[in-house]
Amino acid sequence: MKSSxxxxxxxxxxxxxxxxxxxxxxxxxxxxKRTFVSSPLVFRTFSSLHSARVTLEALFILALWPQYAKWTxxxxxxxxxxxxxxxxx
Length: 89
Prior knowledge:
Blueprint (H helix, E strand, L loop, with lengths): L19 H8 L3 H8 L8 H18 L4 H18 L3
């Protein structure tokens, strides 16, 4: 019996802007819509990768400039929040 997980991805599926489409609507543009709908690769990364990257950047900055701990973690928190709020992935 073949699992449905073993089937190959369907790259003919049109892309979806998701929540970044809200930014287009807010500013009256269509950049996200044009980019994602015409993209041949409609699958995106997990938000956890973005959170991990922000955390690593914060740790790197703190290793060099520990006096900026408050601002570095505030920046990281804003990015954590925006990743979840915008549901970009």
